[in-house]
Amino acid sequence: MPETPRRRSGGREGRHLLRAHSVIEREPFLTRTMAPYEVLSEEGLALLEWNADTILQEVGIDFRGDPAARETLRLGGCDVAGDRVRFPRGLARQVIQATAPRVWTQHARNPARNVTIGDPHMVFAPNYGSPFVHDLDRGRRYASLEDFRNFVKLTYSSPWLHHSGGTVCEPVDVPVNKRHLDMVYSHIRWSDKPFMGSVTQPDRARDSVELAKITFGAEFLDDHAVMLSLVNANSPLVWDAAMVGAARVYAEANQGVLVTPFMLAGAMAPVTTAAACAQTLAEAMAGMAFVQLVRPGAPVVFGSFASSLSMQSGAPTFGTPEPALLLYVVAQLARRLGVPFRSGGNLCASKIPDAQAAYESANTFQPTILAGINFVLHAAGWMEGGLTIGYEKFILDADQCGMAATFVKGVDLSENAQAIDAILTNGPGQHFLGHPHTLANFETAFYRSETADNNSYEQWLEGGSLDAAQRANAIWKRMLAEYEAPPIDPGVDEALREFIARRKASFPDSDV
After folding, report:
1. Is 259 inside a domain boundary?
2. Which of 161, 192, 262, 344 has the smallest number of CB atoms closer than 10 Å to its CB?
3. Is 105 within 8 Å of 225 (Cβ atoms)?
4. Which domain holds residue 287?
5. Given CA atoms 17, 18, 23, 25 in this order, what sign does their dihedral have?
6. What is the CATH number of the domain that holds 183?
7. Residue 463 belongs to a domain
8. Reported confidence tier of residue 25, pLDDT bands at 50, 70, 90
9. Does some domain include residue 449?
10. What is the pLDDT, as a whole number, of residue 24?
């Protein structure tokens, strides 16, 4: 019989343990040092801006189910006929540029974790909105409140994610009309990073604002943004009452509003990239102009979420060239408009954390970094076109966010980085492994992936022949086992719980 390989003590296992427990310097957000990559000329951008204004003036946008919103827009100079709101050419841009902040701060419960949203900064937030979760142990299943809390804890524990996000998954074991209370509380209690509020109904947005007031103080909220909210246009060319009502609540409270058309090109927009870009700009400007008319100076983020559509199956596709081009173009349009921009992420259609998930996510994430996106939702965990958040996928994506943190710093040209003395003193034909410069810098010289295996084939066999997903499985379990909740004032926590209990008792459970 062949001899069984002997496991070595210390060595590789010791190094892995040391790395697993090493302290990684946390950055509250990233600052890009490189100019963003741009794909359109000034003439091309001006053409798309003209087309967007043509859409707003000639076709208009429906603001459905909210007469107060239409009245706000009418008083702001729009032409209103029934649900249809038409913006005279240039009006939406004028309103936005007059008062919307180019860069703003979202304050966290822990001030050390405040994030700056806008150029040249970049903020990573996890997956949003999935009703299902997936892991290697139990497969795909409906998400629970425990899963929601787990992902909040994992996001808090990750040095590469700067923002706690919002509906990281839908806890379907809690009634629809009450789960927003548990979700917002989870962000506040189990993390001290910035977070997002509920938007599914205006009342739920108001509950979110009240929870934030209990946490931060009502006076603080009046001139400090502590929440961000995601409102989606109902493309094509519709803003519905739920989204507009939630946007009003957050704008009146001076909280951030992330205005995002949600497009599947070929279904909710024309199939061509140029047309989808113009429609995105029109819908987003209509929403952002509304926010500024509600409260001039309220912080906004111009969002874009676009995917192509399979003309064979009708399913959305991810990691394809056309949405990447749209991402680059709309990022340019946002910079010209003068507001922060959200897009991108680690998006894929794969059902498991496999090769398809990896290459589709990479094909989305690389343009995200190169285009200079300011707020990246879905940076970790997205699977199955957004229907599922994966535990292992979350860990693998967070690792990519860590690599991006190194990449956006660009090339270091300090005296140490130039290392001229090291080259002059080392001489031809001599390796640098033992050189004092290497010894002084090797621990921080390169990004160290926790999920990739770079050992020899024999070492990999000895370690159990694990693939990346299996390694990630062990990592998220370890992170949850080692999680320690951030401190919170006991009085604040008690007040939050009392408010939630009172609100839940004030109306019956509902599935809508």
Report:
1. yes
2. 262
3. yes
4. 96-407
5. negative
6. 3.20.20.480
7. no
8. low
9. no
10. 60
